[in-house]
Amino acid sequence: MISMLRKAGISSSMLYTAGFVSIGLSVASWVMSRNLETRGIARADRWGIFVGQWAPTFFALGNGMRMEEEMGETMPSERVERMKSRARERMPVS
Predict the structure, then answer these.
(1) Is the dihedral of CA 81, 83, 86, 90 positive or negative?
(2) Which parts of this chain are annotated as the region Disordered (predicted)?
(3) Which of 28, 38, 50, 70 has the smallest CB count inside 10 Å?
(4) Residue 39 DSSP one-character state
(5) Which of 22, 21, 15 lies closest to 51, judged by CA?
(6) What pLDDT was estimated at residue 15?
(7) How far apart are CA 77 and CA 13, in angstroms?
(8) Quick one: how far is CA 12 from the chain centroid?
C-alpha cells in the first residue's frame, strides 16, 4: 500500500497535511451539522466522529511513508537481494 502511494507521488507531508485537514473538517462538519440540521446534537456528534476517524489513518500512513522515504527503497526484497549480492562479493574465492 505504501509503495503504491509512493509511486503515485504522494509524500509523507501530504499525508500529515491530510490528517490535520481531517481534524479541521471534523470540527467544521460537527458545527455545520449542529447548526443547520434539525435532527439534534446526536447526529452532529456522529458526523464529527465519522470525519475525525480519518485523521489517525492519515497520520499512520504518513509515518509509514516517512519510514519508506528514509529507507529510500520501495520493496524490502530489493534490500535483501542487495545484501545477498554484497555478501557473495565479499566471500573469498577458493
Answers:
(1) negative
(2) 69-94
(3) 38
(4) S
(5) 22
(6) 95
(7) 26
(8) 7
Q: What is the dihedral of CA 4, 6, 9, 13, to 10 degrees?
A: 130
DSSP 3-state percent helix, strand, coil across the chain (nearest 5): 80, 0, 20
Cell numbers placing 76: 524490502
Residue 66's contacts (CB-CB under 8 Å, 6 or more residues apart) are 12
What DSSP designation does 92 have? Answer: P
pLDDT tens track for 58-84: 999 999 999 988 887 545 566 667 777
Note whether 75 and 69 are within 8 A (CB).
no
